[in-house]
Amino acid sequence: MRVRRLGELEAEIMDRVWQWERPASVREIVDDINRGRTVAYTTVMTVADILYRKGWLSREKSGRAWMYQAVRSREEYTAALMQDALGDSQDRRAALLRFVERMSREDVEALDEALRAARAERPSGASGGAL
């Protein structure tokens, strides 16, 4: 599945929903965004509806308002973007090497830990690429 990078307002909305980890109304989202810049209620309502139709948000009616909640985590979104970018490469091994060369020591250590955890969880002979 190809994942398109979120637009600026889409990302702002998702950032709040991910951070709050609970259902949120458009009014709450608008009020929070308006602390840093002005955005219209109807604009946020439209973009939240778009995110719902794209499958990024679920929604449930609460009185007259929709309450929105993230369907996928920020980490799933980031991983999908990384997978898409890697899939665009002719030489995946070289792309991974260049990526790791630019990582901080802390990120390399976190990647190493993630690879160890993935190897421990994956039964031998499982498909999905060698770890």
TrEMBL record:
Pfam families: Penicillinase_R (PF03965)
Keyword Transcription regulation: yes
InterPro entries recorded: BlaI_family (IPR005650), WH-like_DNA-bd_sf (IPR036388), WH_DNA-bd_sf (IPR036390)
UniProt keyword annotations, A-Z: DNA-binding, Transcription, Transcription regulation
Family: Belongs to the BlaI transcriptional regulatory family.
Official protein name in the record: BlaI/MecI/CopY family transcriptional regulator
Organism in which the protein naturally occurs: Streptomyces racemochromogenes
